[in-house]
Request: fold
Amino acid sequence: MGYIFTRRTLMALAASTTLIGAAPALAEDWSPQKPVEMVIMAGQGGGADRLARLFQSIIQQENLSKMPILPVNKGGGSGAEALRYLKDKGGDNHTIMATLNSYYTTPLRTDIGVNIEDFTPIARMALDTFVLWVNADSDIQTLDDYVAAVKESGGTWKMGGTGTGQEDSLVTAMLEKEFDIKVTYVPFKGGGDVAKNLVGGHIDSSVNNPSEALGFYQAGKLRPIAALTPERIEVFPDTPTMTELGHGLVYWMQRSFVAPKDMDPAAVAYYTDMFEKLAASEEWQTYTTEKALMADFLTGEALQAYFLEERDKHADLLGSMGEGS
Amino acid sequence: MELLGHLADGFGTSLMPLNLLIVFLGVTAGLFIGAMPGLGSVNGVAIVLPLTFIVPPSSAIILLAAIYYGAMYGGAISSILLGIPGASTAVATTFDGRPMAQQGKAGLALITAAVASFVGGTISVLLFTLFATPLADVALAFGPAEEFALVLLAFMTFVGLGGDDVLKTIIMICLGLALSTVGLDLISGQPRLIFFDLPGFYSGISFLVLAIGVYGIGEILYTIETQKTAPSVTPARLTFRELGYGIKEINKLWKTMSLGSALGFFVGMLPAAGATPAALMSYGIAKLTTKTPERFGKGAIEGVAAPETANNAASTGSLLPMLTLGIPGSPTTALLLGGMVMWGLVPGPMLFIEQPDFVWGLISSLYTANLAAVLVNLALIPLFVWALRMPFTVLCALVFVLCLVGGFAPSQKLHDVWLIVAFGVGGYILRKADYPMAPLVLALVLGPLMEKSFRQTLISEQGNVLAFVERPLSGTFIALSAAFLLLPLIKHLKRLTGRVPSAAK
Reply:
């Protein structure tokens, strides 16, 4: 008996050793030992911030992470603060960052010593949409009204948006080029600030993401003029797209997660798995339809390739803006 | 009447045993978190946020609000006992709170702070209950120009009423503003003043690092030098008789406290402004309206009551734009906002219509949280006062450790610890030369907001500087600022002419 028992134990031991040895990349092998810091590349109250906090809440509600996720806003300098911070966190397994398009534009515009190729891609959760907004009290009802009003203002039309060189300013530059107009671009810290200033009448228009302006829209304070999407957005069925009005303007904002350089592959697998479960959750599915987001999950090498391709596109876009900054 | 009905429903929620228990736990935890230099309401709320999923949303927000409130009360404790403001909102409390403690009146100062906080909290909750919805429009009227003018006004109250050497105050404000530009430019994203190319400077210099440095380390150095072996604080005791005496004293402060509450509520309500300028302006106004301004800075009881009413009132006020506009007025309310998003509530104009249970549950819990906070606080004052009776040699080392740990904890960067030491030595030298520290610290806190709003205004007005004066609200603030700036000059002239018997008075 004793002999068999020992042999069985040995076999079991051997088997388990093989298992451990064979599958080092299994998500179960690694789990966070302390709270995970979720760096947000934007200020409080904006689209990126709200979304990151939503992710955190779903992760917590569905128990997708063994340790709490703590969101930290580092929105200074169009996200440069966050990028710099992530760079200094090389090899850290307990930091992830929620990105937006400034992930490529900020290092392109400013030499902050950050190369995004070094970071570890985790997962792309969604593509966000852009809509042209005006205050509901204004006389502008259509895109033609808008273009006419901007032209009449002679360059004093105040377009509010996030930091110079960030998405909102790129979209603004696209509008200026397409319609041959000139606006005064006023940068704010986050999309929430922009929406509030548009409602308060301190700026004349914005290109907020739907989620940033939705509350004010439902309260009847803001009016959508046109969407920068190929198809109409479900929550604004009466708002035409630029495309159907004959202007092929389409621009997306990616919402992804990345990690510092040299994160342990097992940790990368853990987070990838966590976000995959998140993407499949019911809350996330409902949110994307309600807030006019395109859920579009992408991970690993494919995501890195996407990042680099987008970076090249934005380099061209910024180059064509020229005097933009 | 509809309002009362809503409020009654709200109390139905907040007076449930579970919620009452939550309120007491929350304020107690908040009180200790706020009392620790280096930890403030932001940290408290952040730590507890994930735990709130085990209770229903209305209980969860009550817990968070209770911690927020408790921490606002607690912030005064380290300001008074150690002279180190635990949060930027409590800087003004050190001006008179610290001298009171040094005179052995720590107990009275703490009672005053607690009662003043209670009054400020209660008056502002009343204002909140009555005017929450209409006031949201006032917050909307605040654009970049108004933000700038308001911050300018906060600085000028300081210059005009500081009493210290005006020139030195202005020099310290400028130094603080210069320090506030370290890091990445908000608008263009360019790095500025990255000394020795140290990566730590990219995220700027945080308020805590500077405050702990100049108040904590600087204070220790200064005390060691001036007192050598004598204890820094006269042993203080607290009896019921003193409590009674304290309440009688506080009874004389109604004017200061009601002014402070109203001011705090309105300034706190404005997005981006928050409790720091509110506390500061309240201190300034208390000094302006008193008959004996010379007592300020030397342990005047009003000097504790004024900022404490205002910062608590402001913390309630800052909930208003968060609930009605979805715009957080302070970092802590930003976290609360995050919590609401988690629970599936959409803050914004529709919240009051779609989720009345939640909103009124929260508002009514502010009444209970306030009451709980003052009770817990008063009960614990003997403990805090007892802590002061430690021998100076022990206290000094303890404070030193607290300073370094408190500075390291939030960012976990050794860079910040070295900065604290550097600021401590620098602050000590400046203090020896009689330079006031408060303007330096406040300039660092308000500098980024001031710069950002100034540039936004200039951009949107095509470089027209007159825009600040032309807009009615910001014009008024600018005019007031100018008046405050000229005040020392007028006083000086008065003093000159005062020798002539026929002069005013």
Notes: Chain B touches chain A at residues 46, 50, 53, 140-145, 183-191, 199, 202-204, 271, 325-328, 331, 334, 337-338, 341-343, 346-350, 452, 456, 459-460, 462 (CB under 8 Å). The beta strands of chain B are 183-184, 191-192. The CA atoms of residues 275 and 315 of chain B lie 6 Å apart. Residues 501-505 of chain B have pLDDT under 50 and may be disordered.
